TrEMBL record:
Coiled coil segments of this chain: none
Organism placement in taxonomy: Bacteria, Bacillati, Cyanobacteriota, Cyanophyceae, Oscillatoriophycideae
Name of the featured protein: von Willebrand factor, type A
Ranges for domain VWFA: 43-215
Alphabetized InterPro entries for the sequence: CLCR, VWF_A, vWFA_dom_sf
Cited Gene3D superfamilies: von Willebrand factor, type A domain
One family name in Pfam for this protein: VWA
Amino acid sequence: MKVNLKSALNDSHIDANQSNSQRQVAISLSAVSESSDRSLPLNLGLILDHSGSMSGKPMKTVKEAASYLVEGLGPDDRLSVVAFDHRAKVIVPNQPVDEIDGVKDAIASLKAEGGTSIDEGMKLGIKQVALGKEDRVSQIFLLTDGENEHGDNERCLKLAQVAGEYNITLNTLGFGNHWNQDVLESIADSVGGTLCYIEQPEQALTEFSRLFTRMQSVGLTNAYLCLELTTEVRLAEFKPVAQVEPETVELNAQQEGNTYIVRLGDLMTDNARVILVNLYLSQLSPVNHTIGTVQVRYDDPALSQTALLSEKIPLTVEVQGVYEAKVDSNVQKSILTLAKYRQTQLAEAKLNKGDRQGAATLLQTAAKTALQLGDKSAATVLQTNATQLQAGEELSEAQRKKTRIVSKTVLQSDQE
């Protein structure tokens, strides 16, 4: 496997007469399969909420979805299953998938009872997945339907960091309408995972399958973006780096001299990660300039090799005495994608403070941004919620969660 690495600026021309210029650079990263490459073995960990509120159809559909995933695992893959209520227990210890019927029987034996302690489930689940992570794609699917009533949300975030240090990706699935979207989003975002919303029980299989298909497409792991800038260039001070595809996520950049390091996690073969970086440039003389370089550090489990380096590609601009813009439409789309997310985040903040009209205005703006992107489903959700707030009505928990999801990604119906 190799890294497919591309970059583009929203406008690669710079006005030599300006003392400062702002530019956004979009960086696309994916794994490229070579003819001799085979699919990587998987190390899947399921952490399943079986508290009392999961009783009935929710528990039934989750067990069915989990069993379906087991059938999709191969002889080189490993699986572990942890269940939690207000305590956690190992249902299937980390093992090769060679006794499928026994694993499915263990999953089928789960019963809904007790309270909810997500961090207890995470602690035990991460420990199990870590046992089988050598030379594998290691991911966790964490499902819950409730608030962490018997647990500690800060501990959840610390455990997510531990998972990242073990090179384990954590995906979170919120079931129903009573889970905490801030906590589950933060868990997934911090380790390159995905937040999913299962509004109705019958959607469980679809969401589990979507995550599993993405996991199967991983070609390289533990990827870090390395962005080296010249002395004339700096990152914006406020939230300078974000992922905009496949989901929108605010990212942290660690500075080491003139180089900024951003952890990305797994790289997929069929779904590029696109990173948007906000830069400021000092005044430059009217010639072509290299303003920085981009490189990726990554692991290749198929070769049992770590800390490999991709080619280093230059970031170049043309500085003009007589400026004519050269706009890249794909980068402009990335800018709009991030704007949709941030406008929705601001709307949620205003709503939480009781400012319905302010929230409605921002949701309308986000809806217009979604339309510019061609994301009609998001535009409908956002505009409907804005109209409801303008009418003096509250948003339901389901509406709030749907708003969060459409702000981060394009709904499946629009992608198909």
